[in-house]
Amino acid sequence: xxxxxxxDNLPDDPEVAFVRLYExxxxxxQQRIRGEQDTRAEAVEFMNTMLGVAQxxxxxxxxxxxxxxDWDEIxxxxxxxxxxxxxxxxxxxxxxxxxxxxxxxxxxxxxKSRIHNLIREIRDILTSADLQxxxxxxxxxxxxxxxxxxxRVRTRFDNATLMAIDIIGVVDKGTNTLKPINELLxxxxxxxxxxxxxxxxxxxxxxxxxxKKLPPPPKQITGPDQNPFSxxxxxxxxx
Length: 239
Hints:
two-stranded antiparallel ribbon, 59% helix, single chain, mainly alpha, 4 strands
């Protein structure tokens, strides 16, 4: 049992999880500062939260940032942090959207209709097969989830694969009445594969890229105790 159910639905990808939590906490931050004249306390709280999120998800680059002890420095530090944070989030979104295109396919209306018909045939075979209700219902849920994915703008290959793996496992252990499912799954795979072949080359696999890091702070800032926080100059940061 998860002790923190509010994080149960976080994506497995740490960068995507970071973006989701950023959007959640940034919305809360924007609500708290609405109408406020002095927003330093809220800025510190938001910055501290995002640093904790980054550390928990092991996102590199955030260790270069620290909350200043001097209250007068908060606006300047937070402004730079907020800009770097927005830039990082945008880079993640653009990069992940490209990857999603690679591992998904756009199906036209005819292809979607054909796949729905094939899924209907698979469901009919499973309905008449000698299966435990628990297992049959589990397979029906996976088929329904895949059907919903088929109706999206782009259909993900990983969801189709997971659905097929579960069903093939049951078919291989079952009777001959389940064997026709293999051919139906093959036809679904062929429809998706042919549609992918028709897509432009830019939707094919891009060259691998190194994971992005949050840009480091742009300058050195010394707190009232004269202990400098790390602020290495980064000429590539456009602010």
